[in-house]
Amino acid sequence: MASKPPADDIDESQIRITAPKTVAVGIPAVLNSLRVANDQMGIARSVQTLVRINQKDGFDCPGCAWPEENKRHAAEFCENGAKAVAEEATLRRVGPEFFAEHSLAELRGHDDWWLGQQGRLTHPMLLEEGATHYRPIGWDEALEIIAAALRDLGDPDEAVFYTSGRTSNEAAYLYQLLVRGFGTNNLPDCSNMCHESSGSALNETIGIGKGTVSIEDIHDADLLIVAGQNPGTNHPRMLSALEKAKQRGATIIAVNPLREAGLVRFENPQTPRGIAFGGTTLADLFLQIRLGGDQALFQAIGKHLLEAEDRDGGVLDHDFIAAHTSGLDAYRRELADARWPDFEEATGLTEQTLRTVGEAVRTSKSTIVCWAMGLTQHKHSVPTLRDVVNVLLLQGNIGRPGAGVCPVRGHSNVQGDRTVGIYEKPSEGFLAALDGEFGFRAPREHGFDTVEAIRAMRDGRARFFFGMGGNFVSATPDTAVVEQGMANLDLTVQVSTKLNRSHVVTGRRAIILPTLGRTDRDRRGGAEQRVTVEDSMGAVHASRGRLTPPADDLLSEVAIVARLCALVFDGAAVNAPRADWAALEKDYALIRAHIQRTIPGFDDYEQRIEKGRTFFLPNGPRDARRFATVDGKARFTANPLEYPHIPEGRLLLQTLRSHDQYNTTIYGKDDRYRGIHGGRRVVLIHPQDITELGFSDGDLVDLVSEWSGPAGVEERRAEAFRLVGYETPRGNVAAYYPETNVLVPLDSVADVSGTPTSKAVIVRLERRPA
Q1: Is the dihedral of CA 475, 479, 485, 487 positive or negative?
Q2: For the chain, what is the largest distance between any 2 Cα atoms, rounded to a whole number of angstroms?
Q3: Which one, 64, 256, 340, 715, has the greatest CB density within 10 A?
Q4: Which of the 8 DSSP states describes residue 749?
Q5: Quick one: three-class SS letters along 378-446?
């Protein structure tokens, strides 16, 4: 059963570069999955664990939110899912003796990869003000310190409560109740940094901030446009769905600045074709678009469709448009004035190529557009996504089989967390339901999103931080500002399974609360508890871990929050939520009963998750072409064309993940699909840009970002990155986060949504001193 001990720091000066791959998954993915699992869990535990991932009687993968089909494979996981599970189910442990051996100063000298490799946290730990080391503390004392810190605040809005996307529906619902009962809506979450632009655009145009397709729709689509997304690394199980669509005759168009292997060819290790016969070519057309040119692409498609309708007729779905939409005339006028040369400049593609895409859309019987952060993390992301919706509305591609919008979410329950109340701008209907259910009045004033929370920490308007999972310090933009903001706080609390940078960049005092993970058995009240999650397509199902927890007294997230609720609310003032907190801790079905009574769509909650069943939450556009917009119709919008303009001698940087990474969790320092081995501090750049800027492939440079803020041009620096010649559009470069988050200005955010512009950072290269 023994795992291998964690490796020491990796010397990135020994980095090795090979040619990028043109095929994803296959036998190499299987072998790497088994190697990582064996290193972390040993052989027997690996078998015991991997066979339960995403099974109806098993646990939900703690990685991505891609849905499962009703019929499951015996191995219903991908390489990165296996890595995520191995990291959580590891036999490595981080207990009090680890913190006694390693000072805070020493731990700060290690990167996120090293910290995460050490193993599972087992005991609550306290860092006293001025102390050099964390020390162990009992659960009761730790929770009382937290409750006392909350009571000592002068205003509830001085507290920030962050949530990652892996928190279950039950824990998230109870958590938001704690926060609103305390008196604030300061509930920033990872959605603010990733898909907030999707929610903003979709709520405005179709009346729901979610996608409108199912996994069966993906299989049945005639045309799939996959834009600003790299499923081979970020959602590998999506490749199986794309393969099935191809086998049924679908056309796939990939839109991405980098030619990612997962969109080129897929070797499915669960089929003979994938193992022995070369796999499946996925993308029929691969568009290496310039960063930020996606709005121009979709406007070009829309213009082509309207021109074809005016010329030949038969292109638009006039019945759908008349019955279910508004705003077409304004959209027509906007595109009538649009110029093809502007589309070419913005995208880096020729008019002929753009019209080829438009013709594919025109002849498609049903079209789905899938996207991720490549579209959501620009200043003009919301207009871009409005124009995606415009194209789909023209042909009635909302609310019918094989058609619709498909924002592909990241963390496994990030969508569910939002559904059950993790949102800084809650609706009046939701708050009123809470008031009635729990006998108090929830606050109505909007709270802090992630960016505003950082500003509050920076400016001294916040004194307390509570992180329900995640790695806030590494996930957020403008790293230096975030770290200083954390240091300004009186107390920082992290509920975590493993060590990360947010445990070593702290307030004056800090508490670590270890918690159960998805793979762990959660026994409360004499029975094994289950939790529920919502996938990227609005389906809810149960998850139950079976492994013995890393420590006997480890609490679940639900138990931690329930005990805090009891400490904060019992005996408190009149305006506090009332519930039997001890009962909720012991029986999660009672929490689901509260959810059922306060959130539409959860009727018969308990019965619908029995025996591994999955149920879909209501989705007006998908279910009945019903649109909860201001006028009750799907809305065409007129959006002026926007795209980045790169100054002379500068480059436009996108931050991205490596293949050995999921969000801020670093599984290793290789990115084999892109040919990077043994390091992460690299810049992928077109060879001609290297030459024209006076550098050579392999040179070490500093990246300096430039942003024109209210006080003038602001600069931020990331040091010692190696230039790697790569096939990418001229003027565009790519580098991994969190290492480059330091370059993303806090105040450079998307219009409307406030999402950081991590895919559009102006940088210059400076040679490192000899």
Answers
A1: positive
A2: 76
A3: 64
A4: B
A5: CCCHHHHHHHHHHHHHHCCCCCCCCCEEEECCCECCHHHHHHCCCCCCCCHHHHHHHHHHHCCCCCCCC
Q: What is the DSSP annotation of 158-183?
A: GEEEEE-TTS-HHHHHHHHHHHHHHT
Q: Are residues 170 and 118 in the same domain?
A: yes
> 454 near 186, Cβ under 8 Å?
no
Sign, CA torsion 562/566/567/573: positive
Angstrom distance (rounded) from CA 722 to CA 684: 9
Strand segments (E) across 95-233: 120-121, 125-127, 135-136, 159-163, 223-227
Name the nearest CA neighbour of 165 among 447, 588, 454, 467.
Answer: 467
Q: Where in the sequence is the domain holding 113, given as residue range(s)?
A: 94-191+414-602
Residue 132, domain CATH: 3.40.50.740
Structural domain includes residue 593:
yes
Residues of the chain with pLDDT under 50: none
Parallel/antiparallel/unpaired status of strands 223-227 and 325-326: unpaired
Q: Which two tokens stand for residue 339?
A: 């110029």
Instruction: For residues 76 and 105, state if they share a domain.
Output: no
Separation between Cα atoms, residue 689 and residue 310, nearest integer Å: 42
469, part of any domain? yes
One domain, residues 390 and 469 = no
User: Residue with structure tokens 């509930």?
Assistant: 187
As a whole number of Å, the CA-based R_g of the chain is 25
In a domain, 641, yes or no: no
Quote the pLDDT of residue 757.
97
What are the tokens at 307?
């021109």
Residue 1 has a pLDDT of 53
Number of domains in the chain: 4
Question: Would you list the DSSP string of 583-612?
Answer: HHHH-HHHHHHHHHHHSTT-TTHHHHTGGG
The answer to whether residues 380 and 292 touch, using CB atoms and an 8 Å cutoff, is yes
Q: Are residues 435 and 338 in the same domain?
A: no
Tokens at residue 682, please?
Answer: 């690299």
- Residues 85-123: pLDDT tens digits? 889 999 999 999 999 999 999 999 999 999 999 999 999
Could you give the CA distance from residue 191 to residue 376 in angstroms, rounded to a whole number?
11
* 450 shares its domain with 523: yes
Indicate if 347 and 434 belong to the same structural domain. Answer: no
Same domain? 745 vs 694: yes
| pLDDT tens sequence across 143-166 | 999 999 999 999 999 999 999 988
pTM: 0.96
Is the residue at 430 inside a domain?
A: yes
| Same domain, yes or no: 474 and 555 | yes
